[in-house]
Amino acid sequence: MSDGKNASSQDYFILLGFSNWPHLELILFVVILMFYLTTLTGNLFIIILSHLDTHLHTPMYFFLSNLSFLDLCYTTSSIPQLLVNLWGPEKTISYAGCMVQLYFVLALGTTECVLLVVMSYDPYAAVCRPLQYTVLMHPRFCHLLAVASWVSGFLDSALHSSLTFWVPLCGHRRVDHFFCEVPALLQLSCADTHANKLTLLVMSSFFVFIPLLLILSSYGAIAQVVLKMRSTAGLQKLFGTCGAHLTVVALFFIPAICIYLQPPSENSQDQGKFIALFYTVVTPSLNPLIYTLRNKDIRGAVKRQMGWEWGL
Q1: CA distance linking residue 253 with residue 209, whole number of Å
Q2: What is the pLDDT of residues 47-65, one digit of tens each?
Q3: Which of 63, 122, 149, 204 is least crowded, fewest Cβ atoms below 10 Å from its Cβ?
Q4: Who contacts 60 (Cβ-Cβ below 8 Å, separation ≥6)?
């Protein structure tokens, strides 16, 4: 890429990643590889089990399977490239590879924001509208909600990706991150990027704060209904219904707010790398554990599929 010209398909980028901490790269490689394998195993387990066991053919596990598939795609869009860069001296990615990675990371991240809102609607309907649940959560409607989540994420990513790669990229090819993301790529531009940054801020706020508000509203309504029961069983139902999902929501939205919606500072780029590492590596590996831990439905499904009692 030459000065004053945009990149061409023959050009490449250098993903600096964690090269400022070379003594950490081998440790990070081992840790990230372990988390990645855990993510693949845990999410594939949920997808396969939800498909095989007819007792799990419910809206909750349909959306959970979507989340698991989403997490598989999300981690695979960036982690293999990161592992290659951590292992060897070459830390490059082709221009086309960077475009593809940027598009899918953005698309899948935005899709998860919307999907987490959709997942909060299921317990709301079950607790607050129990008599209408079968109508509200009709399989066809559930499929429409899932499709809407995916479509909104990929459309939003198309906007940001096109705006980012239309910006003339000048000077060096060093991207100060471990994957191609909008803010890091905009730093390479010699043009005015205020419009890009404003668009990113507005759309990030839209896909972060509105989903978060809707999720909290759903669980606020659930809490009101359950607390009126004034029973220990009711409170246990509240925590059982909401606890896992709210934990996943916190693990996803808090890092996203820290990355995209905090004011920039001198150390924000380095902090952002480790925060991004958390939500791209750690969170997707924890989601299966959070949803299956102490989950009677999952344990029952495993028993039925294995055909023998585990004594759980």
Answers
A1: 9
A2: 999 998 888 899 999 999 9
A3: 204
A4: 119, 122, 123
Is residue 47 within 8 Å of residue 70, measured between CB atoms? no
Output the CA torsion sign for 45, 125, 300, 294.
positive
- The first and second tokens of residue 235, run together, are 């409170």
| Cβ-contact 50, 256 below 8 angstroms | no
Each residue of 118-147: pLDDT tens digit?
999 998 998 889 889 999 999 999 999 999
- Ramachandran region, residue 307 (left: φ > 0; alpha: ψ -120 to 50; beta: rest): left
The two structure tokens encoding residue 42 = 């845990």
pLDDT tens profile 7-48: 444 488 899 888 888 888 899 999 999 999 999 999 999 999
pLDDT band at 267 (very low <50, low <70, confident <90, very high): low
Confidence at residue 233, expressed as pLDDT on a 0 to 100 scale: 61
State how far the alpha carbon of 160 is from the alpha carbons of 20, 54, 133, in Å: 28, 40, 37
In the prediction, which pLDDT does 230 show?
66
- Three state DSSP letters for the chain: CCCCCCCCCCCEEEECCCCCCHHHHHHHHHHHHHHHHHHHHHHHHHHHHHHHCHHHCCHHHHHHHHHHHHHHHHHHCCHHHHHHHHHCCCCEEEHHHHHHHHHHHHHHHHHHHHHHHHHHHHHHHHHHCHHHHHHHCCHHHHHHHHHHHHHHHHHHHHHHHHHHHHCCECCCCEECCCCCCHHHHHCCECCCCHHHHHHHHHHHHHHHHHHHHHHHHHHHHHHHHHHHHCCHHHHHHHHHHHHHHHHHHHHHHHHHHHHHCCCCCCCHHHHHHHHHHHHHHHHHHHHHHHHHCCCHHHHHHHHHHHCCCCCC
Question: 267: burial class by Cβ within 10 Å (0-12, 13-18, 19+)?
Answer: exposed
